């Protein structure tokens, strides 16, 4: 009877098991026949992975298998390579039929397939940090700044150098927040080299001496590359929705988060062209809107009743170690312990686990 009931349900395929896709799949698993396609077996809270490098035990809470929250769905550990009007095609040649499709492929990351291997990777990064007297960080976006902050706070005796090719750190937010983050890093003896770059094609893990584009020499026992990752949309360039990819590779969506003029293909998270900061909490909002819209459509509701997504206001929060953070809101920029209490202390791990239907701390 269970198989018969599943056969009667609408088929929803979610491609991408990141912050948006995982929440969407979890939210509709008892309303549809849900299939999640993801190249890894686990969900990872992305804003916790930098602290997991200095505190690997944190990853035990921040990384959990898709099977823990998706208890009434199907998980296919693979990569999607194309879509038709009726199916998603995987790299092995499987055809996964859908009535509704949700694309949530965000950015491309090279991560291990299994949770155990991912946890081991954090352990290896931690050993790398502990064994290094000096560390080079390439990239001054949120990833590079937060990693520099975590290392500077937990290992104040280590020499940390951050190289960024832009004129200021955190270029995605305002000047004031950028300046506050720079001042904080400098106060923790992090050397920041702006408007300089490192030729990544010429360096290896064995290198200990690095030369910037300005000719400065940086001595470092190890290095971490913290640059923006490419969008996870290249697999759609020859698909039926190729005309709805903008010049940046983002999917053009309407106010209901449907792709182009499609009635049954949605996109959520960083892969969308919505003019707003691409952040985890925003991706979660996308997921919850599409979950409600899918439930409505599955029940046969009128399209006029679909929820319209309103772009998020400009706000951002960047952790600076365990206690501090810089937060930018529409009318103010705040620095220090107050925003740090909001984000930096637990990095929203407990909140995210509860949202995914799990205990705040694993039992």
UniProtKB/TrEMBL annotation:
It comes from the Eukaryota. GO terms for cellular component: cytoplasm. Residues 10-286 form the FAD/NAD(P)-binding domain. GO terms for molecular function: electron-transferring-flavoprotein dehydrogenase activity; flavin adenine dinucleotide binding. Keywords: FAD, Flavoprotein, Oxidoreductase. Signal peptide: none annotated. The keyword Flavoprotein applies. Belongs to the FAD-dependent oxidoreductase family. Putative FAD-dependent oxidoreductase. This is FAD/NAD(P)-binding domain-containing protein. It comes from Dioscorea zingiberensis.
């Amino acid at each position: 009877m269970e198989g018969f009931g599943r056969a009667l349900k609408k088929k929803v395929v979610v491609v991408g098991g990141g912050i948006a896709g995982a929440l969407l799949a979890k939210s509709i698993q008892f309303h549809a026949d849900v299939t999640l396609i993801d190249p890894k077996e686990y969900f990872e809270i992305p804003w916790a992975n930098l602290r997991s490098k200095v505190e690997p035990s944190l990853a035990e809470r921040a990384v959990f298998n898709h099977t823990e929250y998706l208890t009434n769905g199907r998980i296919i550990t693979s990569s999607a390579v194309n879509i038709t009007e009726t199916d998603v095609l995987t790299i092995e040649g499987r055809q996964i039929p859908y009535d509704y499709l949700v694309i949530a492929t965000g950015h491309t990351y090279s991560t291990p397939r299994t949770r155990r291997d991912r946890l081991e990777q954090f352990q290896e990064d931690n050993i790398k940090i502990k064994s290094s007297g000096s560390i080079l960080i390439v990239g001054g976006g949120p990833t590079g700044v937060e990693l520099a902050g975590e290392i500077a706070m937990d290992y104040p005796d280590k020499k940390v150098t951050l190289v960024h090719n832009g004129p200021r750190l955190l270029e995605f937010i305002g000047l004031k927040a950028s300046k506050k983050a720079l001042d904080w890093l400098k106060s923790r003896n992090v050397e920041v080299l702006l408007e300089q770059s490192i030729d990544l094609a010429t360096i290896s893990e064995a290198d200990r001496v690095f030369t910037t584009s300005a000719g400065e020499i940086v001595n470092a026992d190890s290095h971490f590359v913290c640059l923006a990752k490419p969008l996870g949309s290249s697999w759609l360039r020859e698909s039926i929705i190729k005309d709805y990819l903008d010049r940046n590779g983002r999917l053009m969506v309407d106010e209901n988060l449907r792709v182009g003029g499609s009635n049954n293909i949605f996109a959520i998270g960083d892969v969308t062209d919505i003019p707003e900061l691409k952040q985890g909490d925003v991706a979660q909002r996308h997921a919850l809107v599409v979950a409600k819209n899918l439930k409505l459509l599955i029940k046969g509701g009128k399209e006029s009743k679909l929820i319209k997504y309103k772009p998020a206001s400009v706000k951002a929060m960047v952790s600076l170690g365990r206690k501090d953070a810089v937060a930018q809101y529409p009318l103010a920029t705040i620095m220090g312990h107050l925003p740090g209490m909001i984000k930096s202390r637990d990095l929203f791990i407990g909140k995210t686990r509860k949202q995914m239907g799990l205990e705040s701390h694993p039992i």
